[in-house]
Amino acid sequence: MEPSVKQLIESLSQVYKTIHQKSYQKMNNMNFYPGQPKLLSLIKHHEGITQKDLSEKTHVTAATITGMLNKLEANHYVYRVPDSTDKRVMRVYLTPEGKHFAEHAERFLISMFEQLFTGFSDEELQTFNHLLEKMKSNLRNSDSKS
């Protein structure tokens, strides 16, 4: 018997809620705020990224990114520099302490998702990734039709 859409919604909701709860608990123990691990990883891999690009890549508002960067800057993990050609644009860089924190954040994310996918075969992971890509495409296509 195939699962109904309602069953799929319920399963996705439960997985999302559990991931959120577990990651929030672990982040609190490690002095992370929600969203910081991903943000730090993006900055680490894109040194000098603009705040606008961070907003687009994380799918959150510019105001939210500014607030997150303010916290990271207050903790001396990042610093912002005006762009050399357009002073209105701020580029974001990691401090040495921020690089260490970013490594720690990446290890946290990887371990959390390794735990999530424990027991999955390579084929199941490929299938799951394919289905996620298909879902993302469906969502993008539905946005263009609205």
UniProtKB/TrEMBL annotation:
Residues 5-137 form the HTH marR-type domain. The keyword Heme does not apply. Keywords: DNA-binding, Transcription, Transcription regulation. It comes from the Bacteria. The keyword Transcription regulation applies. Pfam families: MarR (PF01047). GO terms for molecular function: DNA binding; DNA-binding transcription factor activity. This is MarR family transcriptional regulator. The lineage of its organism: Bacteria, Bacillati, Bacillota, Clostridia, Lachnospirales.
